[in-house]
Each structure stands twice: as C-alpha cells, then as structure tokens.
Write a structure and sequence with these properties.
Layout (H helix, E strand, L loop, with lengths): L1 E8 L11 E4 L5 E5 L7 E10 L1 E6 L16 H11 L5 H17 L2 E8 L5 H5 L4 E8 L7 H15 L5 E5 L7 H9 L5 E6 L3 H9 L4 H9 L12 H5 L8 E6 L5 H9 L4 E5 L1 H7 L6 H6 L4 E3 L12 H11 L5 H15 L17 E4 L15 E2 L2
Parallel strand pairs: 1-4, 5-6, 6-7, 7-8, 9-10, 10-11, 11-12
Antiparallel strand pairs: 1-2, 2-3, 4-13, 13-14
Helix pairs in contact: 1-7, 4-5, 12-13
Bound molecules: zinc ion.
Zinc ion (ZN) binds next to loops.
Length: 387
C-alpha cells in the first residue's frame, strides 16, 4: 500500500482539502481517501496530482500521416490530403506509427481513448491492453446503393474489436454519408455510445443550407462524379441530429462553428450529448476554435480530444488544455480538468472504473509538477505518471 499527498489534489470534479492522503494499492486501485492520517510513510508530491487523462477523440490508424498534410488549409483540402496520402505507406510503417502514437499517449498521462477506426489496423496494438479503448467503427459513403454493404462490413470490424474492448459503429460526418447509411447506422446504435464529427467548418453549414460551397469539390474528387447533395435550408446539426434517435448517448466532435441557436436546438431534443472539442486540431486545420464559453453557458457537457496525428503535432491532452487556457483564460481550471477526466469517462461509458479519484476505482494517477493555483499551466509543464 502507498500513501500519497500533494500540494494540490484534483479528484476529477474538484480540488480536495489540504492534507488529503490517498491510500493506493500496488496495482493503482484507490482504497481510501482521508483528510487526516496517522500513517507515517506518506509520500508528498509537488504540484498537482489527479486521475489520468481521457482522450475522447482520436484516430490511431491515421498516425502515419504525422506532418504529411499542410496546416491551416481548411477542412476540405485537409480531407483531400488524407485521401491522397493515407494508403502511401506500408503496413509496417502504419503499425510502427500506431505503436509510437500509443506510447506518446501513455507518456502524456492518457489512460483511455475514444478511437475512430475504419479498419482493423489498430487492433493488435489495442489488444495489448496498455490503454483502455472504446473503438468507434466509422462508416463513410455517399452512394445510397452501397450503404448496406458498407455498414455490414463495419459491423464485422466492430464485432472483431468487441472481442477485446467495447466498440460501436458510427457515422463519420453528416456530409459524408448517404441517407440509407444514416438510417442503417442509427438502427444499429440502439443503447450504444455513438459519435459523429459535427460542424467542423463553415463550408459544412453552407452545404446543408444552400447545397453550395467547398464540399462540392470534395465530392467531385472522391466520387469522381458530379454529386447532387440534397440541401435542407438549415444548418448541419439541425438537419440531422433528430435522426439519430436510438443511441444511449452521442459524442459530437469539433463543433467549431456551432452557434447559440444550434445548441438551443440540440438541447430541445432531450438527448444525452457530449460536446468534444479538439482545440489543437481545429487550429491545425481551420485556425479557428469552437466557442467554448458559449457551450459552457448553455450547459453543454464538454470533453476533450486530440483528433489524429494527421491534424495535430502530439496526442497530448495537457497540450489541449494549455491551448484552451491561452484563448479562454477566464475558464476555471476545475472545469477544464473535469472535461479531461470524469466527463470524458462518462462519454465513453467508463465512469465506474476511471475518470475520478474514488474508492474502488483504478483511474491512473498523474502528477503535473508545474502547477500554481490560479495560474494557467506553464508552457513547459509536463505530465508524470504515478500509476
Ligand atoms: Zn476526427
């Protein structure tokens, strides 16, 4: 048994009183939390102790695309870049990149990941059980006639992942799936955790509102054909969210251009939603951040993601937090840390095991030495894993 104290202890929701001592088994399970202790052998940590970070949105299978795609080109050119480069690598290169990316997450104090996968490239690494995963098997495809086949293939992939950890099938984005695919994936999400890329750029809303804009270029390049998108006259989220009506909960990813009216609409639907922000990926792709203070004001449950190494320089939740603090310095640190821990655990259905310092949980434990109360994290603050 180990007895731990620190200058500051954050439990996933709040800072614990001074002099709190955590009793932790060798394997990392918390067995007691006391404010007074008679134990002599308490080990004191400088700075902040907290549960391990949870990355609610990643694409491990794209790790080999690190530094491949230019920054700040906008989403459409970014997606065209992914399409152009993703198969230019050997299986060995892809596997090595996946291993390195996972190791980077481990070193950066991440204990669990919501990971988007199209295929089985990341399976072998995930099976090693070094991190906890929920794999979201992603369906993409605009041709109505191919929907059934594509969804069946994704179901098989998801069933293979599910032999080692939780998995569900999800839609890539509202603009990249046919209506048949949306119906089939929705039908297969009953009581499951779902996820979708939402409102990542203005062009997405333009496509839904007027059927015009940059996305037509994407369709032409990918489908090699003229494609007539049936626009709705409404923003993206107000066009599709009602149709996702059987999932237990949905992680909406990015929300870079989501407005007050969009959130009000989503809140009227009485769904269990998690709003995932990936600040460094947004800066990489669009050089724009979501309106996080607005989300907070509207009561959105926020979680944090890194997105993939195709659109980020690191898989590092602390780096995402630093970016948020730089742009929105008035947001309380407790709020941001809860997004990266207990909220994200709830988003991935892992709140009974990780995400907070609670008796019986094995949440991982990390130290951030360079932390001073009331101050944003120092630029050079880093994470050290304790468990
Ligand atoms: Zn993504």
């Amino acid at each position: 048994m180990h007895f731990l104290s620190a200058d500051f202890i954050f439990d996933g929701q709040q800072f614990l009183p001074n002099h709190t001592v955590l009793s932790v088994q060798e394997d990392g399970v918390i067995v007691d939390i006391q404010t007074q202790t008679t134990h002599q052998e308490v080990q004191h940590y400088r700075g902040l102790l907290m549960p391990g970070f949870i990355n609610a949105h990643c694409h491990l299978e794209l790790s080999h695309l690190k530094n491949c795609i230019p920054e700040r080109t906008g989403l459409v050119d970014f997606l065209l870049g992914i399409n152009q480069f993703r198969n230019n690598f050997s299986d060995e290169q892809k596997q090595r990149a996946i291993q390195d990316a996972e190791q980077m997450m481990l070193v950066n104090g991440i204990v669990a990941v919501g990971d988007i996968s199209n295929g089985l490239d990341s399976l072998e690494q995930k099976k090693k059980g070094r991190l906890a995963y929920h794999t979201f098997v992603e369906c993409v495809g605009l041709k109505e006639e191919n929907a059934m086949e594509r969804v069946e293939m994704s179901k098989q992939i998801s069933a293979t992942f599910a032999l080692s950890h939780p998995s569900s099938i999800v839609l890539h984005a509202p603009y990249s799936v046919s209506s048949a695919m949306m119906e089939l994936v929705n039908a297969g999400s009953e009581n499951k955790i779902s996820s979708i890329h939402n409102q990542e750029c203005d062009a997405e809303n333009e496509l839904f509102i007027s059927g015009t804009g940059d996305f037509l270029k994407l369709f032409l390049a990918i489908l090699n054909d003229t494609y007539f998108f049936t626009h709705t006259g409404k923003t993206s989220i107000t066009s599709y969210l009602e149709k996702l009506n059987v999932a237990a909960q949905i992680i909406l990813v990015h929300n870079t251009v989501t407005t007050s009216a969009d959130i009000d609409f989503a809140n009227t639907l009485d769904k269990k939603l998690f709003w995932c922000v990936c600040p460094n990926a947004n800066v990489y792709i669009e050089n724009k951040l979501p309106n996080i203070p607005l989300m907070m004001e509207k009561g959105c449950k926020i979680v944090l993601g890194t997105d993939s190494l195709a659109s980020n320089h690191a898989l590092d939740i602390l780096a995402e937090i630093k970016t948020i603090q730089k742009h929105f310095p008035s947001i309380a640190i407790e709020q941001i840390l809860s997004w990266a821990t207990i909220h994200a655990a709830q988003a991935l259905g892992m709140e009974n095991e990780i995400g907070s310092l609670a008796i019986g949980k094995k949440p991982g434990m990390i130290q951030i030495e360079k932390y001073t109360t009331g101050q944003p994290f120092a630029e050079d603050a880093t994470v050290k894993r304790i468990y």
